[in-house]
Amino acid sequence: MLGSSSVSFAIALSTLTLISSEIVEGSRPVLQRTIESLFSDRSETVYPDACKWLRSSPRQTKICNRDPGLEETIDIAKNQAISSCEDAFRYDKWNCSLVFNNKPKRNIFNKIYRETAFIFALTAASLSHAVAKGCASGSLVKCSCLNSFGKNTVKEWKTAGCGDDFRYGKRITRNFLDFKHAGNDQIADTLKQDVLVGVEAVGEQLREVCKCHGFSGSCTTKTCWKRLPPFSSAMGLLKKQYHHAVKKKIVNYTTKRAITPKVRKRIRKDRKSLVYLQKTPNLCGRGEHEWGERGTDTGTNSFTLLQARSFYRQFVVTKRSVEMPGSAKMPDPG
Prior knowledge:
The protein is mainly alpha-helical. It has helices spanning 2-27, 30-40, 58-66, 70-88, 114-137, 154-160, 166-176, 186-203, 231-243, 261-267, 303-307, and strands spanning 99-100, 103-107, 207-213, 221-227, 246-247, 275-276, 321-323, 329-331. The strands form four sheets. The protein has a two-stranded antiparallel ribbon with strand order 1-2. A two-stranded antiparallel sheet has the order 3-4. It starts with a helix and ends with a strand.
């Protein structure tokens, strides 16, 4: 009798622990955890999970198990996003650092700043781009070579061409970030909008590429497919979105209560723009290296960096004689 009661107590305790862990796990949706993990982890740490490059959720583990090539694609997307960001913002006040002004408490993911919105869009865009390219290269087995003839063999790709499957990349990105369980509050809506803006920035870069077939250089048959340019093209669009991002008024800053339909309708406006909720902290410090985690103050002559200074340089013009060519010396006025 005592043994059965202890077993029942153990089962009840394990059930309670499981429920509490699910509540804690659910407090931060997969979408947020995934983006933060991919962009924050600058190391080459390999995790024992199926996706390897991040601590994956059960859903993400299933997705990675279905296509073994996806883990390498995720690594490509991660490095592509970080390197593109650092290259595009190397002369700006914010240089893709994870904290503002070297202050750990001012982590970029603590709130939804303009920069946070950009990172969510950038990482999602890089993932969809890498997956679409992976379909064309053959590194992913669950997607096909878009608009090619016959089977997916390298020989036929050279003959007929192979399109980048952006639709599959978009679908995998949404599924991998678990859109359905991202939440229904303003924070979730804001981050989901930023992710979609990033993905659509890649889709806008799709271009039709054609190849002629025929005798003696004639174009009796023409094969066309869709091809994505290098990721830098989408990066240019995203940086414009960053500079034109829209700040939304916080109407319900909570992760548990759903907002009203009236407020949701107002939030759905400007769906094509990046949106954020909090103003970026002042990035201009008086110290020598207070604006950027990696020390943006590198002595460059970039005007953008000069704008980040919170001090003014005094240029002293000394009075001296100015010698004009072919004329006598004239005193400098003043």
